[in-house]
Design a protein that fits this description.
Strand content: 15-25%
Shape: elongated
Oligomer: single chain
Radius of gyration: 32 Å
């Protein structure tokens, strides 16, 4: 087994080094941008179109409508023609066979509307057919029978709009701004898709109305939001127009608009406009904008008629030669404006990139292929495709360009050496304890009762918080603030009732599985159901904590995520299966020291790495409210103070009173006093050491706020921000050690979970139905259960890798409440309510689990309250049923009132 593991590690190392060697240079240290031409899209001649509807489905690019000047050029007074043609380009075709093909027509010619990619097709909203009257109709373009185009009418906009911003995300199509029959509009709407029956009016866009802004839906710190940037306000007869250099963000959770930072790329002082640009989301928190006009040139053009009018009035009033010359110059500029060479217009030729978390802008990858206005920008098959647009006012480009941004991880041989050495060391640790307690089931399950209290305490801490603490808590603090920290304080608070009321039962009853108590107190079905639910929860939890470090390894090495998941699972299964709980506990001790030491080092490095050092860190954190601990709102749908406290108390009470993983640690110490000290040590570590992890999150924010170009613009998961920082900023060797700490965190949790599942299955199912089974047979079953449960967790992690999970910390808290609240209710009923019998308890348990799932799918209640709701419902229903179903059973030593 050791040889197989070393072979796998060596192979992955070689593959990673080879992959890194193939990458070339790039703009920032981590991302490279490449361009490739695609077949040009020409409509009615040699020109392309601008302001077309564009989207994608799978590998197929869709372009519909648009406009150009097919005859007389616009500079000579030519007429603009609008089109209804729909074209398709399959990017999977080879260069020789790839070509545009016409697949249908819109119900009417249209341009200057909103085209968005949606599942299985594209939606076209609004626009204009003549440049004067706006359209309100919406259409869904999709593939029907035999791959024929189907055009389905959707609800029309409440008012006709064109030249507006629009985007799809979070289950909604958004539109805002633009023109309504020639008049600037501040209206904003959204339509649920699919299935929406009518458009919902949103709060109006703040500030002046904007024409041709850019709209993109991207994740903020709390969920998907609609971002609207740039655009321009047209000039009137009395007021100048302006090209906007800022934007707004609409948050569906709060139904409010908030202002984005001015569009000033990091390291520069001059603001950029995004009028006539296009945008796409990139990764989990970036937005990439391309194209658009030059602010100075464009503002001069839109304001020139007003300036001419005012200058003529002044010339007539004062009659000076200078005034007449000024009028003549303005009129000459107007007459020659559309006749300048392309370079004169200075269309934006860079990628302008916005980060939604830090509210910062950067500019990357200058290319003349990007210098277009009115072009479409579509995410398709892993690339961003720029379609047509204007190369200068009135001249349509037929060029179609695919833009691809890659990431180049650089982990380094020294980091790999540290990581591999650590993993091999953990396997050898498991081998040592396998030889020490070979053939002894008591050693495998309880460590022979020889674990010191301090080691058990560190093991509990490493088991309960490790993987989620090391990545998910810093990522949460980085994206939001410290409002989750009081949840960790509740771990210390629940330690007191756990020590006084729960610990004596588990120690004095001398149970191997916590669920043995449920059979003694209630009945066998309750024990088996609780144990089965615990095993299911553990498999899901294993998948989650296995997924976390695999994300980290993928982020820093570039190894395929699925390979990382399999590798991590194999290492942990091997070392856990060999050594039993004693190997797990002592492994946790080693891993706990690495985990805490690495966290303290990283926190200090981040604080001093922020521009301005510690004072800069503190100033930015205060200015951006990143240190906020409490939200005093009474809202039950978000992480307010009372939700955090209630949810934290309930969830931690569940974990520390009904989780076999933790309870098993209570049984590994020599005596009850040692178990009490181990629980208190865990509580104290949770309160004080966790400060470092939240400080890391805040430090990540302040560091990347002052170094926005140091981010990976394609980062797909927000939970990888800390590992990315390690790889990109820390010295070689140190980064490897901290990545090893993430693996340490994961292995401690997964190994504990695997061992606890093995204990639960072997004791609650195998030994119960095979009471005569030998010690050796039970040990064999336990080790096989380790392998099976680890494999199931690995498969679940592979499935989880295909899901879109914004915050793995929130996901874990939700799963904990859904699957474990009933278990907490059972132990609560068993110890404190002697009148509740087995049938009443089982009924309460089922109703509690059902209630939590009903709350999950039928209400907006915060997932943090699921544990509290489930426990309360279980106890309430159990008490109610006990009034009608009385059971007579000896409870000596099984309840608090009947304790010895």
């Amino acid at each position: 087994m050791n040889k197989l593991l070393l072979t796998l590690l060596t192979l992955c190392l070689a593959l990673t080094m080879q992959a890194q060697a193939r990458h070339g240079g790039n703009d920032n240290p981590f991302n490279s941008v490449s361009y490739r031409p695609l077949p040009p899209l020409r409509v009615n001649g040699q020109q392309g179109v601008s302001a077309a509807f564009a989207g994608s489905t799978g590998s197929k690019l869709l372009v519909a409508g648009g406009c150009n000047f097919p005859g007389t050029p616009a500079a000579d007074g030519g007429d603009k023609q609008f089109y209804a043609d729909i074209y398709e380009l399959n990017l999977h075709h080879t260069a020789g066979t790839m070509q545009w093909r016409k697949i249908g027509c819109l119900p009417q010619p249209a341009a200057y509307g909103v085209g968005v990619s949606v599942p299985h097709g594209m939606v076209c909203v609004g626009g204009t057919s003549n440049g004067k009257q706006s359209l309100a109709k919406s259409y869904y373009l999709k593939s029907g029978h035999n791959h024929q185009l189907v055009i389905e009418a959707l609800p029309a906009l409440p008012q006709p709009l064109d030249n507006m911003a629009g985007a799809y995300g979070g289950g909604y199509i958004y539109v805002a701004g633009g023109l309504s029959n020639g008049s600037p509009s501040q209206a904003a709407y959204r339509l649920r898709f699919p299935g929406g029956k009518q458009w919902e009016r949103l709060p109006d866009l703040p500030g002046p109305a904007r024409v041709q802004p850019v709209g993109v839906v991207q994740n903020s710190a709390t969920g998907p939001c609609f971002y609207l940037a740039g655009g321009f306000t047209p000039a009137t007869d009395t007021q100048r127009g302006m090209a906007h250099t800022d934007g707004w963000c609409y948050n569906p959770a709060t139904h409010q608009w908030t202002r984005m930072a001015p569009i000033v790329p990091h390291g520069r002082t001059e603001a950029v406009t995004l009028a006539g640009a296009a945008g796409v989301p990139s990764g989990c928190a970036h937005i990439v904008f391309a194209g658009g006009v030059n602010k100075q040139r464009f503002e001069a053009a839109i304001n020139r008629p007003l300036l001419i009018k005012q200058a003529r009035i002044d010339a007539q009033r004062y009659g000076t030669q200078a005034m007449h010359a000024y009028v003549a110059r303005l009129e000459l500029e107007k007459a020659t404006y559309m006749r300048q060479p392309e370079a004169w217009y200075a269309f934006n030729d860079e990628l302008i990139i916005y980060h939604t978390i830090t509210n910062t802008w950067v500019a990357e990858s200058r290319s003349p292929l990007l210098a277009r206005a009115g072009a479409a920008l579509v995410a398709c098959d892993g690339e961003w495709v720029v379609v047509d647009g204007e190369s200068k006012p009135g001249i349509r480009s037929a060029a179609v360009t695919a833009v691809k941004m890659d990431v180049r991880p650089t982990f380094g041989w020294l980091n790999w050496t540290v990581l591999v050495a650590y993993l091999v060391g953990m396997v050898l640790l498991g081998y040592y304890f396998m030889k020490r307690g070979e053939g002894n089931a008591d050693d495998f399950f309880k460590g022979g009762g020889r674990i010191p209290w301090w080691a058990a305490g560190i093991s509990i801490y490493a088991t309960m918080l490790s993987a989620i603490t090391y990545m998910a808590y810093p990522a949460k603090a980085y994206a939001t603030d410290w409002t989750y920290y009081p949840m960790l304080v509740t771990i210390l608070l629940v330690s007191f009732p756990v020590i006084k009321y729960y610990l004596p039962f588990f120690r004095r009853l001398n149970v191997t599985s916590a669920y043995e108590y449920l059979e003694r107190r209630f009945n066998a079905p309750t024990r088996l159901l609780a144990s089965a639910l615990f095993i299911i929860f553990m498999v899901v939890r294993m998948a989650l904590v296995l997924y976390l470090p695999s994300l980290a390894l993928t982020a820093v090495t570039g190894i395929n995520l699925y390979i990382c998941i399999v590798l991590m699972a194999l290492v942990t299964i091997v070392y856990c299966t060999m050594g039993g709980v004693e190997a797990v506990v002592w492994g946790d001790v080693v891993q706990g020291f690495i985990l805490v030491g690495g966290a303290l080092f990283a926190a200090g490095y981040l604080v001093w790495g922020t521009d301005g050092g510690a004072s800069g860190f503190w100033q930015i954190a205060m200015d951006d409210h990143k240190m906020r601990l409490f939200s005093w709102s009474l809202d039950y749908r978000s992480a307010t103070f009372w939700v955090i406290i209630l949810g934290g108390m309930a969830n931690n009470l569940i974990s520390y009173t009904s989780d076999q993983t933790v309870i098993q640690r209570y049984l590994t110490t020599k005596d009850e006093a040692g178990a009490r000290r181990s629980i208190m040590l865990n509580g104290l570590m949770s309160v004080f050491v966790s400060v470092a992890f939240f400080a890391i999150g805040t430090g990540l924010y302040t560091f990347f706020k002052t170094h926005p170009a140091a981010l990976d613009y394609t980062m797909g998961k927000a939970d990888t921000i800390f590992p990315f920082f390690m790889m990109s900023q820390l010295p070689q060797g140190v980064a490897g050690l901290l990545i090893a700490a993430i693996f340490a965190a994961t292995m401690s949790t997964i190994s504990s979970n695997i061992n606890s599942v093995a204990t639960a299955y072997s004791v609650d199912f195998y030994q119960r139905f095979r009471p005569t089974a030998s010690n050796a047979a039970t040990l064999r079953v336990a080790r096989r259960t380790c392998i099976v449960s680890g494999a199931l967790g690995m498969c679940m992690a592979l499935l989880m890798a295909t899901w879109h999970i914004l915050s793995l910390l929130d996901f874990f808290q939700e799963i904990l409440g859904l699957l474990s609240s009933g278990l907490g209710g059972l132990f609560l009923m068993g110890i404190f309510f002697p009148r509740i019998g087995g049938k009443a308890a089982l009924t309460g348990f089922v109703c509690g689990v059902g209630a939590v799932f009903a709350v999950r799918y039928l209400t907006d209640t915060s997932f943090l309250l699921y544990g509290c709701i489930g426990m309360a419902t279980s106890v309430a229903v159990g008490l109610l049923c006990s009034c009608f179903v009385r059971e007579h059973k000896s409870l000596d030593g099984l309840c608090w009132k009947t304790r010895p």
